[in-house]
Amino acid sequence: MRELSSYTVKYHVQCLLKRFIDVVVAILALCILCPLFILIVVAVKLTSFGPALYQWLVVGQNGRPLKAYKFRTMVAGADAMKNQLLDKNEATGPVFKMKNDPRVTPVGRMLRKFSLDELPQLWSVLKGDMSLVGPRPVLTYEWEQFNEWQRQKLSVKPGAVCLWHIRGQPRDINEWVKLDLDYIENWSLWLDIKILFGAVWYIVSGKNC
Questions:
Q1: Is the pLDDT of residue 1 over 80?
Q2: Would you call 174 helix, strand, or coil by DSSP?
Q3: Which residue, 46, 51, 150, 160, has fewest beta-carbon neighbours within 10 Å?
Q4: pTM over 0.70
Q5: What are the backbone dihedrals phi and psi of residue 160, each rounded to the nearest 5 degrees, phi first?
Q6: Is 5 contained in some domain?
Q7: Are 73 and 50 in contact (CB under 8 A)?
Q8: What is the dihedral of CA 165, 175, 182, 15, to 10 degrees?
Q9: Where does residue 28 rank: exposed (0-12), middle (13-18), buried (19+ CB within 10 A)?
Q10: Burial of 55: CB neighbours in 10 Å, binned 0-12, 13-18, 19+
Q11: The domain containing residue 145 runs over which residues?
């Protein structure tokens, strides 16, 4: 009983430290990257019609609806065009992945290559809707098609970066879920730190193509 109590205390302390790191890093990153945010907004607005930010409606922890933001990388009305491209989906299950998606703008392709479109999620991290590290949130229609086993991936707060940043991005939905469940089962602050450093290398090297 004493060992269980000690483990519980240690776990909660680590959770508090995780949140502290999220807040500190998000604030510092938002301040430091502010000039880059402005440049991206100008580039998106000058090269394509539509808003600079894309409202990302996804599902977060325990199926809770979550509104986050990304820099827009596609043409206006891209969501309505998805049905025309479903036969070209390169992923399995309800997830849609297409390497040469014609909806992506030239500027958007560059933003995606270096994951710069994801930067507004730092605001979601600061608000507490997301963490720096954790399973990626899923789109609402994807969540609706997930089975109970797959939904376990969002038993914790979703993250801006996840385990596939250091182990490779799977195309198979079940492999993706396995990575997220592996993260949840083996979670520690040290694992978060390793994923964060791995994500930095992944972003700088432009592997997100």
A1: no
A2: helix
A3: 46
A4: yes
A5: -75, -35
A6: no
A7: no
A8: 60
A9: exposed
A10: exposed
A11: 20-204
Do strands 65-71 and 53-59 pair parallel, antiparallel, or not at all (unpaired)?
antiparallel
**Tokens 């596939």 sit at which residue?**
164
Asked if residue 35 belongs to a domain, the reply is yes
Nearest alpha carbon to residue 192 among 28, 9, 61, 20: 20
Tokens standing for residue 29? 């990153």
Instruction: Tell whether 116 is covered by a domain.
Output: yes
Instruction: Give the separation between CA 26 and CA 106, rounded to whole angstroms.
Output: 28
* CB within 8 Å of 182: residues ≥ 6 apart: 163
Number of domains composing the chain: 1
Task: Report d(CA 186, CA 70) in Å as an integer.
Answer: 29
Side chain identity at 97, as an amino acid letter?
Answer: K
HSE, side-chain direction, 13 A CA sphere, residue 150: 17
Q: Given this model, what pLDDT does residue 6 score? A: 72
Question: Residue 10: inside a domain, yes or no?
Answer: no
Q: Comparing C-alpha atoms, which of 36, 183, 187 is closest to residue 118?
A: 36
